[in-house]
Automatic annotation (TrEMBL):
Species per Swiss-Prot/TrEMBL record: Ornithinimicrobium humiphilum
GO BP field: carbohydrate metabolic process
Name this protein carries in UniProt: 5-oxoprolinase subunit A
Family membership noted in the UniProt record: Belongs to the LamB/PxpA family.
Region forming the signal peptide: none
Pfam families associated with the record: LamB_YcsF
Coiled-coil intervals: none
Length: 258
């Protein structure tokens, strides 16, 4: 076994079903990851799902994060919405407040926040919306840890608001040389080979470079890696990633605690 001093968190987007419709195997992923980004009913999820996932996460010692989004159930939160900053602030605060209620019922609390989809990508480069989201989270809890792309406008805004910025990498997404995500609309932007993905995660966790979409080497400063739960073979890929990290001697644990 390889020894390592590296530490990394594994997070996944969970609770993204709606009513009788489910997406992904939340319970299986909760046995693998260390942080759960729980949908707050604006892009997916509903109160019953929120309660079920937060309870299951708490039972396993998995950190609970608010996966806040634009109000866009039809588009799964993947469409940009040009909102007034005050309205966006209030909608983010509403979402995380709702999840906090269920977290408290499960005997814990919301430990961090990770914006979803179009909101995540927008605030990475949109100062006004980034500031609005940061203000909502500051009102919820000063110093709250937040996930985002390393070097993004979002993490800068979070730091300026007194939040705790945490860089995140994506296990199965391809990056540009600048460190942004290649659009899902482009072919090859999402990886599916579990072995390739798991070895990339070991490289990211240990500070080594990964290949960007132009064949160059990119080093990402990340304390958490996202393993998606809504792709084919998601559980098997997540398990391969966890096994590879364990074999490399990387300590896998939450970046935030309740």
């Amino acid at each position: 076994m390889t020894t390592s001093t590296a530490t990394i968190d594994l997070n996944a987007d969970l609770g993204e079903g709606l009513g009788s419709w489910s997406m992904g195997d939340d319970l299986a992923l909760l046995d693998i990851v260390t942080s759960a980004n729980v949908a707050c009913a604006f892009h997916a999820g509903d109160p019953s799902i929120m309660r079920t996932v937060t309870s299951a996460a708490a039972e396993r010692g998995v950190a609970i994060g608010a996966h806040v989004a634009y109000r866009d159930l039809h588009g799964f939160g993947r469409r940009f919405i040009d909102m007034e900053p005050e309205a966006l602030r209030d909608e983010v605060l509403y979402q995380i407040g709702a999840l906090e209620t269920f977290a408290q019922r499960a005997g814990t609390t919301v430990a961090y926040c990770k914006p979803h989809g179009a909101l995540y990508n927008t605030i990475a480069q949109h100062p006004e919306q980034a500031g609005a989201v940061a203000e909502a989270l500051r009102e919820f809890r000063p110093g709250l840890p937040v996930l985002g792309l390393p070097g993004s406008v979002w993490l800068e805004a979070a730091a300026a608001a007194g939040l705790t910025p945490v860089g995140e990498a994506f296990a199965d997404r391809v990056y540009t040389p600048e460190g942004s995500l290649v659009s899902r609309r482009e072919g090859g932007s999402v990886l599916h080979d579990a072995q390739v993905i798991s070895q990339r995660c070991v490289s990211m966790a240990t500070g080594q470079g990964i290949e960007d979409h132009r064949g160059g080497t990119l080093v990402l400063e990340a304390r958490s890696i996202c393993v998606h739960g809504d792709t084919p073979g998601a559980v098997e890929i997540a398990r391969a990633v966890r096994d590879a990290l364990d074999a490399a001697g990387v300590t896998v644990r939450p970046f935030a605690t309740a």
